[in-house]
Design brief:
With 138 residues, the chain is mostly helical. It has one domain. Helix 1 runs parallel beside helix 4, helix 3 runs antiparallel to helix 4 and helix 5 packs across helix 6. The radius of gyration is 17 Å and the shape is elongated. The two termini are 25 Å apart. 17% of the residues are buried. The mean pLDDT is 94.
Length: 138
């Protein structure tokens, strides 16, 4: 492996790691917002009740794509072989799709649009993920 290859692998791993951190923060803000709405209807939830709702209640289903992407990034970073360029490109494409609010789009896009309108922390977390994507393209 050449020095250029090593540098490219490190750059890809850093991008994935940075995106993972940004997505974790974003996911937490989305979950906090959804939890608040859920608890207004169902009352305060224990951690176990919330986990059960997150996994099984349709109200939380829209969050699953971002959860699954974080798991995919963990898998890529945990593999013994460096991530392939097409894997990194696929992650970046999925991050772009999951950070594209659309009031007329899919359930995910509509919920994402709503949370950005209602929850300032989500706006900041969204901005931070977009900054990572922008830095990648520079």
């Amino acid at each position: 492996m050449t020095d250029h290859d090593v540098a490219e692998v490190r750059q890809a791993e850093k991008l994935l790691s940075d995106l993972r951190q940004g997505l974790l923060r974003l996911h937490k803000t989305l979950l906090d917002w959804e939890r608040a709405g859920y608890e207004r209807i169902h009352g305060r939830q224990t951690s176990n009740d919330l986990l059960n709702a997150l996994l099984n209640d349709p109200q939380f289903a829209w969050l699953r794509p971002i959860s699954q992407l974080i798991v995919r990034i963990d898998e890529l970073l945990g593999e013994k072989t460096p991530p392939m360029r097409n894997d990194v490109d696929a992650v970046v494409s999925q991050v772009k799709a999951l950070t594209s609010p659309n009031a007329e789009g899919t359930i995910y896009e509509r919920r994402y649009d709503t949370v950005l309108q209602e929850h300032p922390d989500a706006v900041f977390a969204h901005r931070d993920v977009l900054a990572l994507l922008k830095a990648k393209n520079e």
